[in-house]
Amino acid sequence: MSESGDERVSPLQVKDRVYERLREALIDQVFAPGEPLREATLTEMYGVSKTPIREALVRLQQDGLVEIAAYRGARASSYSSADLAEIFEAREILEVECVRRAAQAPGPEAAERLAGTVSSAESAVARGELAEAAASLDDFDEVLFEHLQNTLLDEIRQRLSMHLRRVGRVNLSADSITRSLQEHRAIIDAVAAHDADAADAALRAHLQSVQRQQVEALGV
Fold first, then answer.
1. CA angle, 164 as apex, 163 and 165 as ends, to 5°?
2. 160: closest CA among 64, 75, 70?
């Protein structure tokens, strides 16, 4: 991406592209938590001037993905045990309500769509594509979140999803994903049976398992 050349993109488009690409790089652990984000490195990496880089860093600070300190510059944000507790508390509140609604929905559509994301993840694991498998499990959450149907809660969900995706990339292994897939199948079975209480319990058990793994992986 460059500000010059034949693309003829507007300054606003450049700012948005830099923000989006740097956001995804942070989520995908291209920059590890705590790693410095030096303007000179980023301008070379993205082929832009310092202005869109600085503006992107400010936006990412608002998202909670970047920390900017006077005289020290920017760095990828880190997570404390308290941060993780808040993230998973928010996730549980939102996802439990969503999974209960999914289980109470008439017909098989909710369970079938959730099962489709898990099948995609299983196929990716079989090919050794762990990042692709993780992305398919992100899709599982997105299908659940569709049951919110609340604009204000959806704004919270979008910010939460960035952190969940980022934290989830820390402990990415075939074993962890395989275990997660088994837990997802239990959730799907409960949704397919239209058993909201069982879906609630299966989801809570999954989230507790994931939180334990990720706290251990982050060493907090």
1. 90
2. 64
Asked whether 115 and 77 are in contact (CB, 8 A), the reply is no
CB count in 10 Å sphere of residue 3: 16
* Residue 3 lies inside a defined structural domain of this protein: no
pTM for the structure as a whole? 0.81
pLDDT digits (tens, 9 = 90+) for 8-34: 446 668 899 999 999 999 998 899 889
166, 27 contact by CB (below 8 A): yes
Region 28-46: what's the mean pLDDT? 93
Q: For the purposes of burial, counting CB atoms within 10 Å of the CB of 80, is it exposed (0-12), middle (13-18) or buried (19 or more)? A: exposed
Single out the residue of 19, 38, 31, 120 nearest to residue 78, CA to CA.
31
Distance CA 98, CA 148 (A): 6
CA atoms within 13 A on the CB side of 9: 15
- Cβ pair 183, 205 in contact under 8 A: yes
Is 89 within the bounds of a domain? yes
- Here the CATH number for the domain that contains residue 72 is 1.10.10.10
Please state, in angstroms and rounded to a whole number, the distance separating the CA atoms of residues 192 and 112: 8
| Residue for token pair 């993205």 | 46
Quote the CA–CA distance of 26 and 166 in Å, as a whole number: 7
Domain final residue pick, 37, 56, 76: 76
How, if at all, do strands 36-37 and 73-76 pair? antiparallel
